[in-house]
Amino acid sequence: MPTKLILIRHGETTWNSKRRYCGFADVPLSNKGKCQAKKLAGRLKFEKIHKIYSSDRRRALQTAKIIFKGYEIEKIPELQEINFGCFEGLTHRQILKKYPEIYKKWLNDPYKTVIPSGEKLADFKKRITRIFKKIVSLNPGKTTAIVSHGGAISIFITGILKNRNFWKYIPASTSITVVEYKKGKPNIAVLNDASHLKKKLWAELLSF
């Protein structure tokens, strides 16, 4: 049996909806984010999952607890999002106004540019790659769910693809990406699938 990772980005937060940079900041899910997680719970309820890991940020833990209600969830700080430093909590426009030069350089080449007080993208990649490899090694032949962040999932996927386009692979809120390992080699079976979000919950239907 292949070792399978189901990578889940947390649900939407108010910072996400306002397009504020959110890395190490510990913000909770919005009501929309909770609804997204409930939809994914419905999709995964018949999936046999042996182990569940989550970033220790509230938005990830809340998502994990909604999707996998009643299951044991192991918190792993190393699954946190990249630290955006002085960009944390600011919108695109606000950063352009306060830090125009460094921001433009960072958007153009995040590997060569370091955000003041932030985390180097290369260091972030090492952190995420290391913890994902550890999870794979601890769960051979099993299906594991990992609830993490957009940047964390993207940096892992770009590593598999040997692609440096960090922005291209940022997944949607509560989307799933599935990576299967056969003979130690990873294969991306599903990428950024959020089709479950198109389904209406009864709570949504009754609100009209």
What is the compact description of this entry?
Helix content is 38%, strand content 17%.
Commentary on this structure:
With 208 residues, the chain is of the alpha/beta class. The chain has a single domain, classed as 3-Layer(aba) Sandwich (Rossmann fold). It contains eight helices and six strands, in the order βααβαβαααβαββα. The chain has helices at 14-17, 31-44, 58-67, 92-98, 100-108, 121-138, 150-161, 202-206, and strands at 3-9, 51-54, 74-75, 143-148, 176-182, 185-193. The chain has a six-stranded mixed β-sheet with strand order 3-2-4-1-5-6. A hairpin with a 2-residue loop joins strand 5 and strand 6 (185-193). The longest helix is centred in the middle third of the chain and has 18 residues, at 121-138. The protein is globular.
Terminal residue distance? 46 Å
- Order of strands, main sheet, comes to 3-2-4-1-5-6
Number of domains: 1
Can you identify the CATH class?
Alpha Beta
Full CATH superfamily name? Phosphoglycerate mutase-like
CATH topology-level name: Rossmann fold
Mean pLDDT: 94
CATH A-level architecture: 3-Layer(aba) Sandwich
Instruction: Summarize the amount of helix as a percent range.
Output: 25-40%
Helical/strand content category: alpha/beta
Shape: globular
Q: How many strands appear in the DSSP assignment?
A: 6
* Strand coverage percent: 15-25%
| pLDDT < 50 stretches | none
The biggest beta sheet reads: 6 strands, mixed
Radius of gyration computed on alpha carbons? 17 Å
The run of helices and strands is EHHEHEHHHEHEEH
Helical stretch tally: 8
